[in-house]
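Lab meeting notes turned into a lecture example. A postdoc, R.K., suggested we walk through two folding results consecutively so the class can see how the record format repeats. The first protein's sequence and structure tokens come next.
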Amino acid sequence: GGAGTGSNTGLGHRGFALGGHEGPSGSDTYTAEIDFLTISTLGDATKFGDLNNSRGNGIAGFASRTRGIGAGGYSGAGQNIIEFITMSSTGDATDFGDLTVARGRFGSVCSSTRGVFAGGDPGVNTIDYITIASTGNATDFGDTITAVSNSCGGASNKTRGAFLVAYVSPAATNAIQFVTIATTGNSVDFGDNTAGVYRSVGFSDSHGGLS
């Protein structure tokens, strides 16, 4: 339930894991730990620092070339926290601002300058965005086509972000919708995933994405 993100400059390209469940399946114990690894080598992860609180279920993450973002999450209730790390250093996360709606298990996409969050538990149709290089509260972007109750994976290139909508109460879905990251507005239908899923994740390069 934690967030993953990574840098693509210097230090052998670092990958990061932020927060997550700690303990056996079904445990309500969460960790605030941030770990990193050097992607080009093999070896154990190293502690980077800590988030400002333990929130382990459905944190959303993305990064610019230098700064990593971790937002929201669920630890008994949805959280509205946005934090950032400077990926070339080590240390605890720093407060960035607040989401427009407290939530967890939601989707995130980004360009090199702007990050966009969509949907999430407890069932919202909110899309909001931040400018990664600055700090401050998230700003309203628009609305998803339907309220997303549980999980919304994201995949993006530098211009378009696709959200893989997983669960719209009371059932899993196969919907895919997208936004143009540099603008604002409601999401638009993209097509369908090959199967309806309960919780989705996505990843992408500059050309295409997988879910």
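The second example is placed directly after the first for contrast:
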Amino acid sequence: PFRMYERSRYNKMLDNLPLPENPVFIIGHWRSGTTYLHSMICEDPSTAYVTTYQGTFPEVVLGKMGKTLFKNFMRLALPSKRQGDNVEMNADYPQEEEFALANTHAYSFYNFWYFPSKTEEFYKKYINFEGVDKNVINEFKKSYERIVKTAMLNTGGSRFVSKNPPNTGRIKMLLEIFPKAKFIFIYRNPYNVFLSNKKFLVEMMPSLQLEQVGERKLEEIILWTYRQIIDQYYEDKHLIPAGNLAEIRFEEFELNPLGELEKIYSKLGLSDFDRANKHFGKYANKQKRYKKNKHNISERELKAIQKEWKFTLDKWEYEIPDNLRITPDIEVVSR
């Protein structure tokens, strides 16, 4: 009933609301620093974004009664920190819109959380849109537009900023919806990306999956998905109009977030950096208390990364991190 009310009350308003002309899309593989970058940019008062609440209840966002009811339920259920990486959680914090898409219709790559053995199928269908009916593609685009417009009304910002790792492989589609869109691609040491993804999936999967898969299968998923989405990025990045793409190295952003943000704003022609800088500074100081996960890596994992991801190790000139401890192989039984 709350969803029906929202549709009847706000559909016409959303239909008549123009799409933002120059949205900003933060892209990059999962665990590459996209959350940190997105959260900091969203400290800019001019920013609009999808919240964690909107990601969970994408069609009960604008109606006051439904929003109040479900947000209170959510606050009771939501843990203070995200399982797997200790990132703080809050119903009003910025969130990737893939969750909103997945909670609106069936056409989301994030179905792999339930059926990890079908990761490749979901990737090809809902990131590459291979062999997918045009009606599905049109519905996906319309849903995306509605989610963006709803986020603009909900957060009140004038510049929509997205963080959504699956979009790293959807540049062509995003430009069909937003021809003047701007992009920020962030990349990180592949060794750390692999280990962080593995820890995240191992800890999160059991509470979500509807089938059992072994640790080796999760490793295969990480290795395959990374190669696919980074290859797709480099294949499609030439489609982005000149001056609308900024590429940053996570390690440099982590060391000097304010300096790197200033470069991003300058590169993409975004206004109001000086006005937003004080907000960025407060957030950066707060994040100094954040404790990262520590990782070991087995010789087997090391060899797999060096074989499968050599193209980015060479391209971005990354070495094995000094603080990474290499351990002897331990046989993992895969089911």
